[in-house]
Known about the structure:
By secondary structure, the protein is mainly α. The chain folds into 2 domains: about 1-40; about 45-105, no CATH class. The chain contains 5 helices and no strands. The chain has helices at about 1-35, 45-50, 55-65, 70-85, 95-105. The longest helix has about 35 residues, at about 1-35.
Amino acid sequence: MKKQQKNVSHYNQVFKTEFESKIISKITGILSNAVLKVAPPDEATEIELNYHNTTRWKIKFEELTVSYNGNPKEFIESVDSLAILNKKIPAGKYIYFEASKFIANYF
């Protein structure tokens, strides 16, 4: 039984190595090139994406907070834009709540 397990384990490792070198590496190359060719979504598409993934705004909000440069007016405009893109989701109001908590630290 142990000999069979070692053989199976060996074949699994050989299969994994072959699979990664012959298939995964090629798919990764193809996807890397394809991603560069895909245009970012337009506003209507962005709104629908946010509607179907209701926590998607958190990623964009995190980007806003990380890149905050001390300009509250610019930050508020960015938050407004983010809220518009999330107008179809009930949790959209939390964008302003989170923004107010963040910006309060700078006053």
